[in-house]
Automatic annotation (TrEMBL), chain A:
Gene Ontology biological process terms from the UniProt entry: Golgi vesicle transport; macroautophagy
GO cellular component, one term: Golgi apparatus
Key words of the record: Endoplasmic reticulum, ER-Golgi transport, Golgi apparatus, Transport
Family per similarity comment: Belongs to the TRAPP small subunits family. BET3 subfamily.
A Pfam family it matches: TRAPP
Name the UniProt record assigns to this protein: Trafficking protein particle complex subunit BET3
Localisation: Endoplasmic reticulum; Golgi apparatus, cis-Golgi network
Predominant place of localization: endoplasmic reticulum
Species of the source: Pichia sorbitophila (strain ATCC MYA-4447 / BCRC 22081 / CBS 7064 / NBRC 10061 / NRRL Y-12695)
Top-level taxon in the UniProt lineage: Eukaryota
UniProtKB/TrEMBL annotation, chain B:
Superkingdom field: Eukaryota
Single biological process term from Gene Ontology: endoplasmic reticulum to Golgi vesicle-mediated transport
Signal peptide: none
Matches recorded under InterPro entries: Longin-like_dom_sf (IPR011012), Sedlin (IPR006722)
GO cellular component, one term: cytoplasm
Protein name per Swiss-Prot or TrEMBL: Piso0_004789 protein
Length: 193, 162
């Protein structure tokens, strides 16, 4: 199962690649969004994180539709399967990266995605202020958390997503953490009315 | 051992990055720290003025050539000044003392040419580094470059070419 999904993820990226001629454009666009947000909110980085998360959430809610249409993926039976799907298909077709799924907790409800490379953060270097507040407060790629949260909510998984490490802050790796809170009731999409 | 003073000038004639170093080639005297510049204090304090006064010459010279490397454009009491200008009107100025040739005997033309070439390469790669830095969303034109990573890479370049 996992082998076929990975294959299809690869294939889809390949067929898609002419459309995205310049990933730098994407990277720089995201960069401008983040730096503009920082200016707009007067370097209140908590607020910037929240905004990015909200943007991601809106992206994710729509993106899941495209994901399902493209992959024709079936409902995952376990959360472990979901994790594999996110890493090997989701990230693969949209960003052409394949984060490592690790650090499962005992109850199988929380895991980490380790991003070996982060296309959002190419060229980026957080400015070293005197107080280094930006390195402590800003999660530059927070939009990814929102995307995952939004997308998973649309398939009835209520999850919390947050960053625990980011190479931009000088950590050794970029690590996202996902925690499954509960399965949502099937019929009502959350967030609607 | 030549000493070098390298400065990047923004579009409003404002310095955005400066670096002082000496040649890493041929460590003659054992005492001094490699890469530490050997400018005398009196020269040291006028280096920014010298490079600043070169800006006028650069602005004249840029119209007389098609290449970005303007070569040696000025000298000031034994200090040579080389310059390079980028598409975005960022100026790179390198001041260096010529006594480096003293250890190698009087500078032969071929050696001189070699030097010019490595300076040109140094400029070109410095420009590439600057462009990379410019791609950082948190950096905007004419800001001072404070990134330690840039500084580090710049020093590596200096070591490689000069």
């Amino acid at each position: 199962m996992s082998k076929t999904t990975r294959y299809s993820g690869d294939e889809m990226w390949k067929n898609n690649v002419e459309k995205i001629q310049n990933s730098e454009l994407f990277t720089l666009t995201y960069g401008s969004v983040v730096s503009q947000l920082c200016r707009d909110f007067n370097n209140n980085y908590q607020e910037v994180n929240q905004q990015l998360d909200r943007m991601g959430y809106n992206i994710g809610m729509r993106l899941i539709e495209e994901f399902l249409a493209k992959t024709g993926a079936q409902r995952c039976q376990t959360f472990k399967e979901t994790a594999e799907m996110i890493s090997k298909v989701g990230f693969k077709i949209f960003l052409n990266i394949q984060p490592t799924v690790t650090n499962w907790t005992q109850d199988g409800k929380t895991f980490s995605l380790v991003l070996n490379e982060n296309p959002l953060a190419d060229f980026v270097e957080l400015p070293m202020g005197p107080d280094n507040r930006i390195c402590r407060d800003l999660w530059y790629s927070q939009v990814l958390c929102g995307v995952l949260r939004g997308a998973l909510q649309m398939v009835q998984l209520d999850v919390d997503v947050w960053f625990v490490k980011d190479v931009l802050r000088g950590d050794d790796q970029t690590e996202l953490r996902l925690r499954l809170n509960k399965f949502l009731k099937d019929e009502v999409p959350a967030g609607e009315d | 051992m030549s000493s070098y003073y390298f400065v990047i000038i923004g579009t409003r004639d404002n310095p955005i990055y400066e670096l002082e170093f000496s040649s890493f080639r041929s460590g003659v005297s054992g005492i001094q720290v490699p890469g530490k510049s050997q400018f005398s204090p009196s020269v040291k304090e006028i280096l920014p003025f010298i490079s600043h006064s070169a800006l006028d010459i650069i602005e004249d010279a840029q119209w007389s050539t098609n290449s970005f490397n303007l070569g040696k454009i000025d000298s000031f009491y034994g200090l040579m000044i080389n310059a390079f200008i980028s598409q975005g009107n960022i100026k790179y100025v390198l001041c260096y003392d010529a006594n480096g040739s003293g250890t190698n005997g009087s500078s032969s033309p071929s050696l001189n040419k070699n030097d010019e070439n490595s300076i040109k390469q140094f400029f070109t790669e410095a420009n590439e580094l600057y462009v990379k830095c410019l791609l950082n969303p948190f950096y905007s034109v004419n800001n001072a470059i404070t990134s330690p990573d840039f500084d580090h890479r710049m020093k590596l370049l200096a070591r490689k070419y000069l």
